[in-house]
Write a structure and sequence with these properties.
299 residues, alpha/beta, Alpha/beta knot, Trp Operon Repressor, Chain A, 2 domains, 5-stranded parallel β-sheet, 3-stranded antiparallel β-sheet, 8 helices, 12 strands, elongated
Length: 299
């Protein structure tokens, strides 16, 4: 897969793309990243790419001409496996589901980094295929967000992360919910859930050596080597963590069933949940003291 990043600060990306699994994947040829200076497509001697907004207002906007010219030069032909995306606070929410979709279906992704007060609206209306935001906050530019997107998509590509299971058994892993549990679910407005029966959970707590540190002990269940008990404990703690930190990810009916549960052997909802990749590395005793590649950043 190849990423193209259009920016007025190409030097910004020398650091983020040179280290970690992304840097290693580029060196090994598993993915390509090319950063393009938007000013190369400016039309005047001062290489101006911005101007004042019509109607007045604060700040400056990126002009449409250089952005159109850059994208059309970078990607003269588009197909079902290409996508031109603008990173913007006004875009739809970018999440792990979008990252999975792009990693599975695209072989070329062009990211346009906004700056100043934004980009001329004709870019989003007539040039890009999508517009995404990495969160409900405003950055000074789209470069940081573009780096986040490249990293989150790249690590899902085959071979980029040393152990591909680490991209499955982690936060936002997909679980399927059986009908008996799903029918009890309601959305924030109290209406019955009608969408996909797939849930995304935060990851369970992870521990490594030593088994005891300053009096804090690793849960005994993780040391016993019982795969089924470890699976149940991980599911319970993932559900608890999600309910506490991101209750918006869970239907109300499932949240109600979680109330009052104290131990993993009482976890009734576990009977209605199934990991998409059930059994993969969930209780491997050889890994219970080891590291999980790809889990060292971003959470």
């Amino acid at each position: 897969m190849k990423f193209d990043v259009v920016t007025i600060f190409p030097e910004f990306f020398r650091g983020p793309f040179a280290y970690g699994v992304v840097g290693q994947a580029v060196k090994s040829g598993l993915l390509g990243i090319e950063v393009h200076d938007l000013r190369n497509w400016a039309f005047d001697k001062h290489r101006m790419v911005d101007d004042r907004p019509f109607g007045g207002g604060e700040g400056m906007l990126l002009k449409p001409e250089p952005v159109f010219a850059a994208v059309e030069a970078i990607l003269p032909e588009r197909g079902p496996k290409t996508r031109v995306v603008m990173v913007s606070a006004s875009g739809r929410k970018y999440d792990q589901g979008v990252a999975r979709e792009w990693a599975a279906n695209l072989d070329r992704l062009v990211l346009i980094c906004g700056r100043y007060e934004g980009v001329d609206a004709r870019v989003s209306e007539h040039l890009v295929d999508d517009e995404v935001s990495i969160g409900d906050f405003v950055l000074s530019g789209g470069e940081l967000a573009a780096a986040v997107i490249v990293d989150s998509v790249a690590r899902l590509l085959p071979g980029v992360v040393g152990n591909q299971d680490s991209t499955i058994n982690e936060s936002y892993s997909v679980l399927e919910v059986e009908d008996k549990v799903w029918k009890k679910g309601r959305d924030a407005r109290g209406k019955r859930f009608k969408g996909s029966r797939e849930l995304q959970l935060l990851d369970c707590p992870q521990f490594t050596r030593p088994a005891e540190f300053r009096g804090w002990k690793v849960p005994e269940v993780l040391l016993g080597g019982n795969h089924e008990e470890i699976r149940k404990w991980r599911l319970e703690t993932a559900l608890r963590r999600t309910a506490q930190s991101r209750p918006d990810l869970l239907p109300a009916g499932l949240l109600e069933e979680l109330e009052g549960i104290q131990h993993h052997d009482e976890l009734a909802p576990a009977e209605g949940l199934r990991l998409e990749q059930e059994g993969q590395s969930s209780g491997d005793p050889d890994r219970r003291h080891g590291s999980r590649p790809g889990e060292d950043q971003g959470r």
